[in-house]
Design brief:
Blueprint: H1 8-22, E1 27-31, E2 38-42, E3 49-53, E4 60-66, E5 72-79, E6 87-90
This protein binds zinc ion.
The site of zinc ion has 5 residues, from loops.
Length: 96
């Protein structure tokens, strides 16, 4: 295609990199598998860099988020099918 719109992957990269560069907060909440309670926090509080990971599923995009030490802090899997909610994995060795 000659007049391709920016890809989903590119838009997502720009969105996340923008949050990292400007240290913008993204408030999220999740159900904790350990205490069965609900937690909330700024996903980007500790994130300093990102990288796109090649998802096994071609209908999804995976993003790895790293902290200041380069350790994997969280990973997001976002389906290109908008009816599916993004999946978030947080390295439980890290603290938000
Ligand atoms: Zn908990």
């Amino acid at each position: 295609m000659s007049t391709a719109a920016p890809s989903f992957k590119k838009l997502l990269t720009e969105y996340i990199q923008g949050h990292i560069d400007e240290q913008k907060a993204l408030q999220i909440s999740w159900n904790c598998p350990y205490c069965h309670g609900s937690h909330a926090g700024n996903l980007f509080k500790k994130v300093r860099s990102m990288e796109m990971a090649s998802a096994a599923d071609s209908h999804a995009v995976e993003v790895n988020l790293m902290d200041e030490t380069g350790q994997l802090f969280a990973a997001i899997k976002i389906s290109k099918n908008k009816t599916r909610l993004p999946m978030l994995w947080i390295n439980t060795g890290s603290r938000m």
